[in-house]
Amino acid sequence: MAAAVTRRAYLTNWTISVPIIALVALFLSWNRDLPGWATTLVAICLAGAVLAAVHHAEVVAARVGEPFGSLVLAVAVTFIEVALIVTLMISGTPEKTASLARDTVFAAVMITCNGIVGLSLLLGALRRRVAVFNSEGTGGALATVATLATLSLVFPTFTTSEPGPEFSPSQLTFAAIASLALYGLFVAVQTVRHRDYFLPITTSGTVVDTEEHADPPSSKAALGSLALLVVALVAVVGDAKAVSPTIEKGVAAAGFPPAVVGVVIALLVLLPETLAAVRAALRDRVQTSLNLAYGSAMASIGLTIPAIAIASIWLDGPLTLGLPATELVLLALTVLVGILTVVPGRATPLQGGVHLSLLAAFIFLAVRP
Question: Rg for the chain (alpha carbons), in Å?
Fold first, then answer.
């Protein structure tokens, strides 16, 4: 009887059932014109598959340990982001999708560096009067994000080898290799050589050497999660292809610019990290929240841009990476405010509110440029 109950609970676990349901939705919707209600169901399956994929990636990461665990999770999230970008680029016209990768990556940077950071600082400060974190580790993370963003999103606006805000093939190759190398160096520093710079600090100044985690999963559980991770990623790619025409038509019908599509993708991909960061901030682990925020921003640039660079070999049309003037100002202001926030190692609700106001400005200007 107990075994039957255990099997029933296993099958009803959402992290197991959702990827399977999303895969079924993929088969039923493949190459079909879907009515509105069917598109909504597939979109719900897509969102559930994204959350399930991140969960199973975290299980595999917990089993393999650091530093490989961080790489597993980052690669899984990046695969989802790249899959959504490439799927929309293939389904749309080159003129409308040329800047999709740029818009998505920049939206991810704004959401993580202002949205997740601001929300974490605000919640942490409201709960404990002041939010504390390690300025050395967080400062290094912010510097890495700023460098990656400049290499991939700022320089194309000013280079002259290609007309418009685009890289030449050699410049794109350099940016991709440099991004991968810098991201790999940061992962090594964070997880091996200077791990203590990224450990949580409580408001009393105590360094928390161990997080409140359960025991590592068994090999059987990790292999099961690996299989379900593959199922979830396949479902994400297929379901994204099914709903992509509706997303583009909805954005156009609302009179929004194409950049809003990138914001939608970034919000969907970063939802799990946002929830995890909020939970950590409420437990007085603001450092963990900042690690998630800046780590997600680094992965979004340092892994997505190289992947898109490879995909551009067979994708038709231009690849616009350079930011226009308004976005350049927002990025510069985000880095400046981030520096002023990080250097003291302590933050009040004011700093959280400033970052959230920058996110609000970004979203408003994305809708009404």
Answer: 21
Nearest in space to 231 (alpha carbons), one of 90, 82, 49:
49
Residue 277 pLDDT exceeds 90: no
Q: Give me 319's structure tokens.
A: 């690849």
Strand positions, DSSP E, the chain: 131-132, 346-347
C-alpha to C-alpha distance for 362 and 369, rounded to whole angstroms: 9
Across 205-231, average pLDDT: 73
As given in the structure block, the two tokens for residue 347 are 């933050």
pLDDT digits (tens, 9 = 90+) for 182-217: 998 998 888 877 777 887 776 655 566 554 555 678
What does 88-154 look like in DSSP terms, one character per residue?
Answer: HHHHS-HHHHTTHHHHHHHHHHHIIIIIIHHHHHHHHHHHHSSEE--HHHHHHHHHHHHHHHIIIII
Is residue 1 pLDDT above 50, yes or no? Answer: no
CA dist 40 and 45 (Å) reads 9
Q: How far is CA 351 from CA 69, 101, 358, in A?
A: 31, 30, 11
Give me the mean pLDDT over the 33-42 stretch.
Answer: 83
Q: What is the DSSP letter of 192?
A: I
Summarize the chain as % helix, strand, coil (round to 5): 80, 0, 20
Cis peptide before 324 (omega within 30 of 0): no
Beta-carbon count within 10 A of 310 CB: 13
361 CB burial (10 A radius; 0-12, 13-18, 19+): middle
- At position 14, the amino acid (one-letter code) is W
Q: Please state whether the predicted TM-score (pTM) of the whole model is above 0.70.
A: yes
**For all residues of the chain together, what is the average pLDDT?**
84
**Can you tell me the mean pLDDT for 118-141?**
90
Domains, in order of start, for the chain: 2-367 (1.20.1420.30)
Dist. CA 306–CA 277, nearest whole Å: 26
**199 φ/ψ angles, rounded to the nearest 5 degrees:** -85, 145
Q: Which residues pair with 347 in a beta bridge?
A: 131
